[in-house]
C-alpha cells in the first residue's frame, strides 16, 4: 500500500466522522460560473455554495460571504474546509460561496488572484 493511498484513506475516515457532527445545511452544491467574454481565462470558475436556511430563502438573500480557502496558494480546496464552511453557513444564515482557484506549482500566485477578479467586479 502506498503512503499516498494510506493518507487518502485516513482523510476519508476523518471526514466521515467529522461530517456526522456538522450543522445541517440545506444547500451544499458545486457550481461552475461562466467567465465574461472579455476574460483571458477560458475555464469557468469552480465554486461551492453552502446555505443553511431553507433553500427557498436563498432567493431573498441580500448578502454573500465570498471565501478563498487555502494554504498560501499551495494547497487545500473548499472541500478541505468543508467543516468551517458548514459552520459559517449555519451561524451566519448567509450564503457562503467558496472559490476553487489555481495552486502552485501549476499556477503563479498572481494568476490565481487575477483569474478570480470577475467575481468581485
Can you put this structure into words, describing what you see?
With 121 residues, the chain is an alpha+beta fold. The chain has one domain (24-120). Helices cover 29% and strands 18% of the residues. The chain is built from 3 helices and 4 strands; from the N terminus they run αβββαβα. The chain has a 4-stranded mixed β-sheet. The N and C termini lie far apart (47 Å). The model has no long low-confidence stretch (mean pLDDT 79).
Question: Layout of SSEs?
Answer:
Elements: H1 3-20, E1 27-33, E2 45-51, E3 65-67, H2 82-92, E4 96-100, H3 109-114
Parallel strand pairs: 3-4
Antiparallel strand pairs: 1-2, 2-4
**Termini separation (Å)?**
47 Å
Helix tally equals 3
Return residue spans where pLDDT drops below 50 for at least 5 consecutive residues: none
- Going by helix content, strand content and strand pairing, the class is alpha+beta
Strand arrangement across the biggest beta sheet: 1-2-4-3
Strand elements, count: 4
Mean pLDDT: 79
SSE arrangement, N to C = HEEEHEH
Query: In total, how many domains does the architecture comprise?
Result: 1
**Fraction of helical residues:** 25-40%
Question: What's the story with the biggest beta sheet?
Answer: 4 strands, mixed
Based on CA inertia axes, which overall geometry fits? flat
Please tell me how large the radius of gyration is.
16 Å
Specify the oligomeric state: single chain
In what range is the share of β-strand residues?
15-25%
